[in-house]
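Recall the central idea of this unit: under ordinary conditions, the amino acid sequence of a chain determines the structure it adopts. In this exercise we apply that idea directly, starting from the sequence alone.
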Amino acid sequence: MSHAEARLFGLLATIWGGVLVYFYHSFRIKKYLAPDFHHLVLIGGIGIIILGIFHLINPKPKPENTEDSCCDHHHEHHAHTHDHDDDCTDCHHEHDGHGPAITYALTLLPLIGTLYLTQDQLSDYGIARKSSASKETLAKIAPPPPFTRADLEKRVPKNAAGDFQLSIVTPSYIAGDREVEPIFDGLHVEFEGRLGDLQKNNPGGTRRRIYRSIISCCAADMAVVDVPLAFEDAEKIPLIDNGEWVKASGTLTFETHGTDRFPLLKVRTMERAEEPYEEFLLRQ
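Accordingly, the structure predicted from this sequence is:
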């Protein structure tokens, strides 16, 4: 590695390390990783920056006689069919590659573009694909909910209106359970999450849904759980955009579609809510 190549590597490493530190301090990292991994990104970014700075201030010296050995090797294979200068020129061009300018462009332009263009959230299509969590998956996400009304009163907090502030995972977990579902059916509850459209089981087009994302380590293994929201008519649906955080209160019910049971919240009130720092629910 020549002096120029070492400094090129050092500069690129410093930039990449700086990006990791930026993601940590800008809190964009919370869109991609569970909190337990945030400090590892910071430590890794600082380590890469130190490595890059080391190569910038202390580049490795260029090996001696590189061109001579290259030319000697080239002469052996071509049996002196070309003169010495031509062989060295050919070999030199072979090892030069595309040059530092192209390296900077191929490395930094995609990086800068993704930093500015990435929205740090799933598209509607991506959310829909990750919304098909089975009950086996839900069982790994959260512990079983309380099994009696007395357990509910003891363990689950209420809002000012007296609605139980349930985890959005709970109704999907218990739907279809003959023993537990009746305890929650007709319960006045409140859910917090993002607002979205409901593509299936939406008679009259007056339903929406509230959802949360669940991860174990990073956005790549993310799943989405949701609860459909039923309004009396379209005119009573609050003018809130998809993707915004809301609190929805109302009566929790269940309905059957085909052979499956699904939760449904008959909305009494819905209002905007502040986005929590911990956007993701974490698997237990």
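Strands lie at 164-165, 188-197, 207-215, 223-230, 245-257, 260-272, 281-282.
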